[in-house]
Amino acid sequence: MPNAMPEKPALEGLESKWGPVWETAGTYAFDRDSATKENIFSIDTPPPTASGSLHIGHVFSYTHMDLAARYQRMTGKKIFYPMGWDDNGLPTERRVQNYYGVRCDPTLPYVEGYVPPLEGGDNASSKAADQQPISRRNFIELCERLTIEDEKQFEDVWRMLGLSVDWKQSYRTIGDHAQSVAQRMFLRNLERGEAYQADAPTLWDITFRTAVAQAELEDKEQPAAYHRLAFHHEDGSDIHIETTRPELLAACVALVAHPDDERYQHLFGTNVTTPLFGVEVPVLAHHLAQKDKGSGIAMICTFGDVTDVIWWRELDLPNRTIIGADGRIIADAPAAIETDAAKAAYAELAGKTVFSAKAKVVELLKASGEMIGDAKPIVHQVKFFEKGDKPLEIISTRQWYISNGARNPDLREKLVTAGKAINFVPDHMRVRYENWVGGLTGDWLISRQRFFGVPIPVWYHLDADGEKGAVIAASEDRLPVDPSSDTPGGFDESQRGVPGGFVGELDIMDTWATSSLTPQIAGGWHSDPELFDLVFPYSLRSQGQDIIRTWLFSTVLRAELEHGQVPWKNAGISGFIVDPDRKKMSKSKGNVVTPAAMLETHGSDAVRYWAASSRLGTDAAFDPQNPKQMKIGRRLAIKVLNAAKFVYSFPEPSVSTGVTEALDLDMLAELHRVVGVATKALDEFDHAKALEVSEHFFWVFCDDYLELVKERAYGASTPEGQASAVTALRTAIDVLLRLFAPFIPFATEEVWSWTHDDSVHTAAWPVVPAGATEPSGLLPLVSEALIGIRRAKTDAKASQKTEAVSATIAGPALLQHGIEDLKAVGRIAEVTFVEAESVAVSDIVLAEQPEA
User: How far is 355 from 527, CA to CA, in rounded Å?
Assistant: First the structure.
């Protein structure tokens, strides 16, 4: 039954009132039994990283996704709208370390009932030296415990925001189901040759001691200095190079200059020896050398930066890596360093950090006279892991990769074609995807030397000497597996680590290797083929623009490799949230606003209104000290409550003659036009336009139309006139509630409940009636005349309730149909109408007012 209309409608408390009702009633539950390929709308929801707190950017982009879900539900679509939690990977590990004051040491035994030194201490223990080492299993248990707590808090925020997800359709990227999907997909990649191992230069974070993929890089400006060094040519002359990394001199394998650089063309094909170490290296040409950088000729080291890697690979150079996984100079000098003096110089570097090694090399070069002048300070871009705080190094390691088109032109072209098959909203975001595909320089490195993640499902045969041999892949029927504790088929635990036995892979998958499979995880790929066939390819992927290169690209890649098709039809890309200075808000910049307090202060409908006011792809400024858009949204939601209550207060008509008056008919015709525009906008994922046109009409409806017809609605007219006004008003409110339902779901549900026994969110989206006529233009004419009447009374310093003896109203002939309502609202006894091109109110004579 409909709810009783409150005496004083209010926004406060609506979230806690309606959230449980929707959950109990299954308002947003996926109706699988009625779903078909034709009527389903499936959403590939971004699983937020469950390691800390949500920020305002999450609220912004997730609201955009929810607007599409709510609209499509009201059009009759069966909505598949799950929620996932991305709870594995480095962010979780770092949070657990800081929160509990622990760090993982895989060599330690498991401790039953382990109690960490800290409980609930965010950032209380950020230094490794202060953290208690614990076993891998104990560490993973703490990761599990904390992510579950975080996920509960995240869910509370999402529920308060009014996300219309089906909470029964949820998953965790560390859960058994997600692990099975990720491992199965890897095994398929391995079987087809798309997944492989290779010894290669690897971007390495020395803090986390793990490999980092190209998509996880971030450039940061760092102070540095150019050091001018003298290399010795075989003809007796010196060649000067400038480098910011003299500590890598022992790893030098060549000098390189641009092939068109006339200063060095005569040197190509000859040899020089390195300062300090006396190693002979060739002088080569390559187009990536920059004539205007330093002296124009550079040393190639293994490896100082990603350009070194390209040169090393394309010029077929030897590998003389000297930096270890701990970021220090390794003990053993490269074989090319042969003389006693050179070995002694290297010995002074061994074991040092790159910072200390740089200082020592500079000291030695100055002593040998091979450093020319003083170092020249500069500031330049250096690559960091996006979650790290120290510059990345490049070391040689054996890692797992998945082919991504960087070295396969056919696959690259397929991925570009896939991008063209997806409807990007806005369309220009496709360029970012295409630029990323076109700029790939290496295959996707997916292995990580960490602990909390999906294990790579392989083992290795050990030969008679205990050395690793052939890969043993897990069988799909055993998934998920953890090779560090599970045994491969045909072996038992006693054979682990012994010659002739096996050893398990200890690396885990990069978190994107799991997140890239959200369509398969949520849709039941392999475990529920019927469901997967229903939802895939999905209708919508909604996400931020900053993860096009990671989440969007990797999902397209996995779908192409496994299914040969795109994972979704549409990709809605939200913009950034920027602060009042137009700087992007992010945790790393320290200017993030958390949403819980914001939702409490302004109300969920107001926050949703703020998010909905920005088109996809457009950055939105937010000033927490002056949230103008939220205040406007709150005002709108309150007005919806009060306007609806006012409309429902008019007496029931005594006749059932429907809408007959010209002004009422024109108002409804204009509303039908608004419905058409809003529907087209939402079909095109332009929620901001749909909100704008609906809101504009609503304020005209409240400020003008409602005022114009209220006297008639109260009965100050014929029964037919009263019936026309009341019917039109109620019809309009009914339509407006449905137009606003995706944007302000709590206020609209509250009002809807006063006259309906179902939910507005499962009600049919309004449609333009067959045979609907275009607006005649009467309503804007009458509104303009009403403004004139109000202005005349204001100018006379009279109340709007002051009666008038007479007035003259001029305007087009059509305006005559609104004269009676103008007389009533203006309290004008007699109106003289004069036909004219434009509207004007004149000669208004106010009635004599009694003396106070």
Answer: 52
Residue 328 carries which DSSP code? B
Q: Is 633 helix (H, G, I), strand (E, B) or coil?
A: helix
Which amino acid makes up residue 572?
G
Crossing angle of the two packed helices 56-74 and 604-612, in degrees rounded to 10: 90
Which secondary-structure segment (H or E) carries 17?
helix 14-25
Q: Report the C-alpha gap between 334 and 312 in whole angstroms.
A: 16
Per-residue pLDDT tens over the stretch 772-821: 889 999 999 999 999 999 999 999 999 999 999 999 999 999 999 999 99
CA atoms of 630 and 602, how far apart (whole Å): 7
Q: Nearest-CA neighbor of 526 among 560, 563, 489, 493?
A: 563
Structure confidence at residue 836 (pLDDT): 95
State which residues of the chain have pLDDT below 70: 1, 51-52, 120-128, 214-215, 582-593, 850-852
CA distance linking residue 542 with residue 570, whole number of Å = 8
CA dist 251 and 230 (Å) reads 16
Q: What is the pLDDT of residue 538?
A: 98
Give the pLDDT confidence score for residue 839 in this predicted structure: 95
Burial class (CB in 10 A: 0-12, 13-18, 19+), 686: middle
pLDDT of res. 199: 80
- Closest by Cα among 807, 701, 698, 794 to 743: 698
3-state helix, strand, coil in the chain (%, to 5): 40, 20, 40
Mapped onto helix, strand or coil, the DSSP state of residue 133 is: strand
Q: In this structure, how many other beta carbons lie within 10 angstroms of the beta carbon of residue 772? A: 15
Q: What is the 3-state secondary structure (H, E, C) of 556-592?
A: HHHHHHHHCCCCEEEEEEECCEECCCCCECCCCCCCC
Q: What is the pLDDT of residue 49?
A: 82
Side chain identity, residue 251:
A
